Amino acid sequence: MSPQTPIRSSALREAFTSGARLGCYEIVSLLGAGTMGEVYRALDTKETRQVALKILLGTGELNPGRLASFLREAQILASVSHPNIAAIYGVEEFEIGPALVLELVEGPTLADRIVNGMMPLTTSLSIASQLTAAVEAVHERGVIHRDLKPGNVMVTSNGIVKLVDFGVATTMAEQMKQRQSHATDYGIASAESGVIVGTPSYMSPEQTRGECVDQRTDIWALGCVLYELVTGARAFAGETMVDTFAAVRDREPDLRRVHSSLPTCVCELLRACLEKKVNRRLRDIVGARTAIEEARQVVERSFRGPRSRALTTSQGAKRRPRELSRADSVPCRPSRPSLSGSCYLAANA
Questions:
Q1: Which of 44, 147, 165, 218 is catalytic?
Q2: What is the C-alpha end-to-end distance of the chain, expressed in Å?
Q3: Which residues of the chain does CATH 3.30.200.20 include?
Q4: Does 328 participate in catalysis according to the annotation?
Q5: What is the pTM of this model?
Q6: Which residues of the chain have pLDDT under 50?
Q7: Taking the domain 9-103, which CATH number applies?
Q8: What integer best gives the mean pLDDT of the chain?
Q9: Looking at the domain covering 110-304, what would its CATH class be?
Q10: In the chain, which segments carry CATH 1.10.510.10?
Q11: How far apart are CA 234 and CA 252, in angstroms?
């Protein structure tokens, strides 16, 4: 694909009113905008399905590095197929620039769900379990997402989680080449674009220092997302990016927020994921999946009560067990992460 001359974002928005055509795609509405491009809901008139068109934008001649990153996202998405990852249908080249044709995911982001209030613990753990499965599939392909966060997680109306936006994803092979050549990006995708690789509140300590990363940087981000899921607050935050980086590197998350509501294994998982020293952090995403599944079983037993069978009313009708909320107490002792036992331990356009 040769470099294009994409039109400016404002011009694109004016051109892409509802009903406008771009090849075989009929534009419906703008879904979102970011530093790399804009995403539109569109109707694929050939396949008669609605899709998301992610269009690369620029203000002049397209930087080869940005184009390479855009196409790498397409290659990475094509290499990973999983029910909890939004699929890619293809890459199109239009007069205005290249575009990715993506699965349209209907529903709010996890960030929206969190802002709207605390979810039942069973719901939070279900979301965490599906997200962990998506990350596991990504890691199995040698990919590092590098931007796991609630804003990049969609939740459909029937509770299905979809991981989206691989715009800053990289591969273990690429990171190994950088490490061997002593190259560092200092958290910047390119000096020309000034795009931060990741989101400060979810970046691992090594990411904030511009070091080469491996899959454990996603495990850190997963811990940040899990913490936010079960507390409603960010694990690390600051008024400025510098303040946030300082919190990531030097402060510990307040686990007092979660001790009264989570099974021990989830508290241990949070500590293992959010270990600042990368060589002491959880090494494998499988450990996180195991811990979350055990937590789900603990919580389900907790709100079912001592009897495993469903409770019945005097008329014999089954009564649905209530959802467990943060107000309910599930023993969670403060302890160091363990590497053994049933709950073994080693985140837009």
A1: 147
A2: 20
A3: 9-103
A4: no
A5: 0.78
A6: 1-8, 59-60, 184-195, 307-349
A7: 3.30.200.20
A8: 78
A9: mainly alpha
A10: 110-304
A11: 12
